[in-house]
Amino acid sequence: METFTFDYPADQKATARAHVGVVGSGDLEVLLEPSPDQTAHVRINTSVDGYGQVWKNVLDRFFTRFRKAVRIEINDFGATPGMVALRLEQAVEESRQ
Amino acid sequence: MTAAVTDLDRLLSRKSFIELSARERTKALLDAGTWRELLGPFDRLHSPWLEMQDIVPQEDDGVVVARGLIDGQPAVVAGIESAFQGGSMGEIAGMKIAAALDLARQDHERGIPTRPVLLLETGGVRLQEANLGLAVIAEIHAAIIALRPHVPVVGIIAGLVGCFGGMSLAAALCSHLIVTPQARLGMNGPEVIEQEAGIAELDASDKRLIWSLIGGEQRAAVGLVDQLVEDDADAIAEAVRAAFRAGQPDSYRSQQIPQFLARLVAIDPALVTDGPALRALWGKGEQA
Amino acid sequence: MSNHRDGISRGQIWFEALTGQSGLVEQAPPSVRCADITFAGAVTRFLAVVPDPDSRFPRARQGEVGLEQGWTLARFVRQAIDSDGDGARRPIVAVVDVPSQAYGRREELIGIHLACAAAVDAYASARLAGHPVVALLVGRAMSGAFLAHGYQANRIVALDDSEVLVHAMGKAAAARVTKRSVEELDVLGETVLPMSYNIRNYAKLGILHALISGVNADAPGAADIERIKAEVTAAIASAKSGGTGLDNRLTSPAAHKVRAASIEVRRRMAEQWAAP
């Protein structure tokens, strides 16, 4: 198991929270909630070691379009980058509802 | 219209219960708009033991407890998420179920008729939390037995994981146990039996045999569960409502001691080794 | 003096030591021993599961809890409930040395899960009816077998002995499943307490009422037997003075430390229970 944290600048306020996914084979759990400061904070627990750069790439890409101050926590059980991106989008979608 | 077309229509309009997550399953059983989760993921009560063993936790520890209404009456549904660690019972997962059952009993003692439902998709004890998993399962058993006189405790095994280990005893203690044809109910999983007793005792890869021993249809045919329902979310929700409307059972299966001891005496262990043999003895028409 | 005889299980040794082999209730099957004796001034029912090499069910010949054992334990416990009135509820003592539940194809087919549930039901019903129920761990208290025979007791006491152990899975199987050696498993158990096979670490979970040291578990002498009788008597008295639930398992200082998460779950769920 490995843990990573990343921060991204944010200029919009988030209001709602969202939870998607499950810590099951090839999947991940995403918890998204508003953060009180002007930054997006991401914390990842992953079962697969040694993929820090891959996580950074996926998140860099996600935060080029997402500018809200949120706290995101990810519990990953070997999801592909595509699955990670999908769950992040779902979390954003759910937080809008 | 032919019967075949009617069946096809029904099949297509059916919403699978098995394909739902535990959270969605609890929603499917509660009256629309009444669902409210207790100790959800944002409460962040995850296992204190998994990370010590380098295993990624889940923020709800794999159990969803939701309150709401069933048929307009207060209810609590505890659903096990089998995708997380095989639905295994760790300290927190198990304690969420035991606590929900105890709080339901306290409601009844104050005159609030809370209806309890358990969704049992589990391999049993979570090995990484071994003795605390076993301890909370004993507490779940105690809680079911203490609550049962107040209100039927309804259990559902839908599949696909099935219900095994100490939680199979919890299933057997439910006042009304519903299964689908995709459910399996047994104390020891086939792989465990093959490992412990050898392939001559049981070939765990013989899926047809396994289903004939412990599958939902077999369990219903020999009267070891109360109801067989197709994998349809609406049908299962209706079966739950009907179980509460029907009220208390005449007797609990786990208390039919003389009947089952007499049945055991009548069984020749050399002959009763597969599903059809037991159906011939205990099948429809034969009463315990 | 030694009571030890080759091939006699711990459960049988202690069942006989405590009951003096008197007061035996009819035996059928021979793998479930039941005796009513006058113990500390009151009629007390003792129960043990012991090996029966001639059992009709081949997978339940070495002291496992199988179909016959589960249903028979249920019968003996239920018999005590049915024949005692309020105010005279006899204590029930489960002498525990059970290596496992019976692993077998017939067992699954015929419903071992229900047989074990029947025993759980009976023990819990006895406790709720006001019988003081005590489990005395003298050997293995494994997995589903312990659930069926002992884990519903008001009070659990154990001998502090290397062969007394509580666990959910045999050590060899657990090592295989967790991809560890047996030695690594022992090291792990020192930090991850619920994984431990050592009864002293089990005691740290706060579930035990007493851990009794300095007793010869294999060949108890007269002093050992008197000592355990006194401990069981004290556990019965404690059970009588407490409630009929299992709440006491979360109230000890040990539980507050190691089962803090369990206590937190109960506290916070109670807070969230009523509608906001």
List keywords for this structure.
heterotrimer; B: 288 residues; alpha/beta; 2-enoyl-CoA Hydratase, Chain A, domain 1; seven-stranded mixed β-sheet; 7 strands; 12% strand; C: 276 residues; 2 domains; transferase (chain B); transmembrane helix (chain B); transmembrane (chain B); carboxy-lyase activity (chain B); Malonate_beta (chain B)
Overview of the structural elements:
The complex is a heterotrimer of chains A (97), B (288) and C (276). Chain A contains two helices and six strands. Chain A is an alpha/beta fold and 97 residues long. Chain A has one domain (2-96): Ribosomal Protein S5, domain 2 (2-Layer Sandwich). In chain A, strands 1, 2, 3, 4, 5 and 6 form a six-stranded mixed beta sheet that branches. Chain A is globular and about 30 Å long. In chain B, strand 2 and strand 3 form a beta hairpin. Chain B starts with a helix and ends in a 6-residue tail after the last helix. Chain B has eleven helices and seven strands. The longest helix of chain B is centred in the middle third of the chain and has 19 residues, at 91-109. Chain B is globular, with a radius of gyration of 19 Å. Chain B has a single domain, classed as 2-enoyl-CoA Hydratase, Chain A, domain 1. Chain C folds into two domains: 10-244, 2-enoyl-CoA Hydratase, Chain A, domain 1 (Alpha-Beta Complex); 246-276, no CATH class. Chain C contains eleven helices and seven strands. Chain C has helices at 10-19, 67-83, 105-110, 112-129, 143-148, 171-177, 182-191, 199-203, 222-241, 253-258, 260-273, and strands at residues 32-39, 42-49, 92-98, 133-142, 155-159, 165-167, 210-212. Chain C is globular and about 50 Å long. The relative contact order of chain C is 0.12. At the B-C interface, helix 3, helix 4, helix 5, helix 6 and helix 10 of B face helix 2, helix 3, helix 4, helix 5 and helix 6 of C.
Strand portion of chain C, in percent? 15-25%
User: In angstroms, what is the radius of gyration of chain C?
Assistant: 19 Å
Name of the CATH first level of chain B? Alpha Beta
Which chain pair has the greatest contact? B-C, 77 and 76 residues
Order of helices and strands of chain C: HEEHEHHEHEEHHHEHHH
Oligomer: heterotrimer
Order of helices and strands of chain B: HHEEEHEHEHEHHHEHHH
Number of domains of chain C: 2
Which of globular, elongated, flat, extended, rod-shaped describes the shape of chain C?
Answer: globular
Radius of gyration of chain B: 19 Å
The low-confidence runs of chain C, each spanning 5 or more residues with pLDDT under 50, are: none
What is the general shape of chain B? Answer: globular
How are strands sequenced across the largest beta sheet of chain B? 1-2-3-4-5-6-7
Pfam family, one (chain A): ACP
Protein name (chain A): Malonate decarboxylase acyl carrier protein
Keywords (chain A): Cytoplasm, Phosphoprotein
InterPro entries (chain A): Mal_deCO2ase/Cit_lyase_ACP, Malonate_deCO2ase_dsu
